[in-house]
Write a structure and sequence with these properties.
The protein has a four-stranded mixed sheet. The protein contains five helices and eight strands. It is rod-shaped. It is an alpha/beta fold and about 180 residues long. The chain folds into two domains: about 5-95, Roll (Ubiquitin-like (UB roll)), CATH 3.10.20.80; about 100-184, Translation Initiation Factor IF3. The protein has helices spanning about 5-15, 45-55, 80-95, 110-125, 145-160; strands spanning about 30-35, 40-45, 60-65, 70-75, 100-105, 130-135, 165-175, 175-184.
Length: about 180
């Protein structure tokens, strides 16, 4: 079945994802508990009276608690309310950070200056809140001299010990020596 073959099904999913508010004429209750624009209780009033009050003040009636008995409605500018809600969700999404694993690749022949540059990059990744996986690849007979790789890994651990803790210590897996660091 095609996605657009049943439009009512896709509309239901869209409505359930977002909270819908009944406003003004869409409110079906005969009596409502009314809250004014400052947040003060106006009491239980007939919906017709609430509509008159909203027209006088140039505001909307918004049903904020439809399950209450009687439903709670509030006098407010609905356009401004929706704008504030969208702004809050956007701000919350901006602050949310998904932790990623960044990889740094080395060989036993990587020069001293290049190792220091890679340590600086690792520091930036850690400060951003990501994990760092340092991989030392051995080619051919380089595997015989694992001590070069282990000293480089120790250098990484020592240089970043103020920001990180070792999640997985250096371990040889085939022709690769691997180390994982995570932010403290």
């Amino acid at each position: 079945m095609r996605a657009d073959a049943n439009p009512s099904h896709s509309q239901e999913n869209a409505l359930s994802a977002k909270q819908e508010y009944r406003i003004n004429e869409k409110i079906r209750a005969k009596k409502v508990r009314l809250v004014d624009e400052e947040g003060g209780q106006a009491g239980i009033v007939a919906i017709e009276d609430a509509r008159k009050m909203s027209e006088e003040k140039g505001l909307d009636i918004v049903e904020v608690a439809p399950d209450a008995d009687p439903p709670v409605c509030r006098l407010m500018d609905f356009g401004k309310f929706k704008y504030e809600q969208n702004k809050k969700t956007r701000d919350a999404e901006k602050k949310h950070h998904v932790q990623k694993v960044k990889e740094i690749r080395l060989t036993p022949k990587t020069e001293e200056h290049d190792v220091e540059t890679k340590i600086r990059h690792a520091r930036e990744f850690i400060e951003h809140g990501d994990k760092v996986m340092v991989n030392m690849f051995f080619k051919g007979r380089e595997i015989v001299h694992q001590e070069f790789g282990r000293t480089t890994m120790d250098k990484f651990i020592k240089a970043l010990e103020d920001l990180t803790k070792v999640e997985k210590p250096p371990r040889l897996e085939g022709h690769r020596l691997s180390l994982t660091l995570m932010p403290k």
